Amino acid sequence: MSEHTPTPNKTAPIEGSTAVPPAEAAVVGPQAVSHPPHTHSTENSGHESSPETKPQEVKARVSSAESPASETKPPERPHVVVFKNVCKTFGNGSGAKVALHDISFTVEDLPNIGELVTIVGPSGCGKSTLLRIIAGLKPHFPPTSGEVHVFGKSVEEPGPDRGLVDQKYSLLPHLTVLENVAFGLKLRGVSRSERLDQAREWITKVGLDECERKYPSELSGGMQQRVAIAATLILQPRILLMDEPFGALDPGIRLRMQELLIQLWNEKEETVFLVTHSVEEAVYLGDRVFLMASKPGRLVEVLKVPRPAEPPEESRRKPWFIDFCQALLRRLEEESPAPPGVKV
Question: Which tens digit of pLDDT belongs to each residue from 23-34?
C-alpha cells in the first residue's frame, strides 16, 4: 500500500471539523457515513413486474416486506457523554471567573469501539474543569448552566461508571501496591481472595509483577502512575478520565506509558478523555482532539485523527504526523498568543 502525506487543514469549529488522516489508516469516531443510493435496472433484474400488477398491490407487498425489519430494529444506544451549552463560573459579582463558556459536544456509544478523546489548550482554559464535571466532582460540578448527560442520564453525582486518574497518582501511602490496586474492590465488598486475585491480574497487565509488596514511596513516578491506572481500571469504569496522567514523567517513560494506555484501551474498549499539554501526545493517542481556548474557556475546534498502528517513536517520524502536529501548534498559538515582547 502506498503512503500518502496529507496536509492537515484548518477545520470548521466544533462538530464536523476534520483533519486529513493518512490514507493507510482508518479514521474512527463519531461520524456520519453516507452511502450512495441503490439503483435498480429492469434490464438486469431477475424478474419483471407483471403488466397486470396494480400500483396498490406493489405498494402493499413492499410494506409487507419491510415491516418485519422495522419491528426487529435494535434500540438506539444512548450517547456516552453529551454536553449542551455548558457554562461554569466560579465566584460571584466582579470577582467571578468564567471557566467554561457554551461547551457543546457529543461522544457516541459505538458498538465494540471505545473512543479516545484528547483535550489540549492553554493553561486556564477549563480542561480539568470539563473532566471533573463529567465525573460529577465538586466544586467544578454542577455546571452553572447547560446540560450534561452520561449514557442518556443527567449527571447528578460521581458514579462507578466513571473513573479519574490524574498526575498526583492518588495512592494510599500506607498500603502496598497490591493493596492499593485492590482497595476499590474492598470498598465494594468483594471478598479478600477475589479482590487480590483480580489485583494481581492488573498488576501483571501494567508490568509490575515484582512490586506488589512494595509501598508507593519505593516506586518511581512511572511505576506509581501504572499502579494508579490499574487501581482505576480494575473497577471497570465505562468512562476513564485522565488529567495530565503522564505530565510529570521522563520522556522515555512517558512514551512507554502511552503504549500501555493504547494496549489497555484496545483491550477494554471503553471511552477515554485525556487532558494533556503535549501536542504530540494528543495526536498520537486521540481519535479526536478537542482544541480549547481561554478567557473564557471554550471549545473552538474538533480534529479527527487516525488510530495509532505503531509505537509512538515510529508515528512521530511519519510526515503526516509531523505536519498535523505543526498545524495544531499553529492553532494553539493563534488561540493563546505570547505576551507582548516575548518571542516564541
Answer: 333 333 333 333
pLDDT tens across 260-312, in order?
Answer: 888 888 887 789 999 999 999 999 999 999 999 998 999 999 999 987 778 88
Residue pair 171/227 in contact (Cβ under 8 Å)? The answer is: yes
Name residues whose C-beta falls within 8 Å of residue 67's C-beta, 6 or more positions apart in sequence. none
- On whether the CB atoms of residues 322 and 276 are closer than 8 A, the answer is no
- Strand positions, DSSP E, 19-155: 81-90, 97-107, 116-120, 145-150, 153-154
Which CATH number does the domain 81-161+239-335 belong to among 3.60.15.10, 3.90.226.10, 3.30.9.10, 3.40.50.300? 3.40.50.300
> What is the tens place of the pLDDT at every residue in 74-130?
667 899 999 999 999 998 888 899 999 999 999 998 777 789 999 999 988 999 999
Q: How many CB atoms lie within 10 A of CB 316?
A: 15
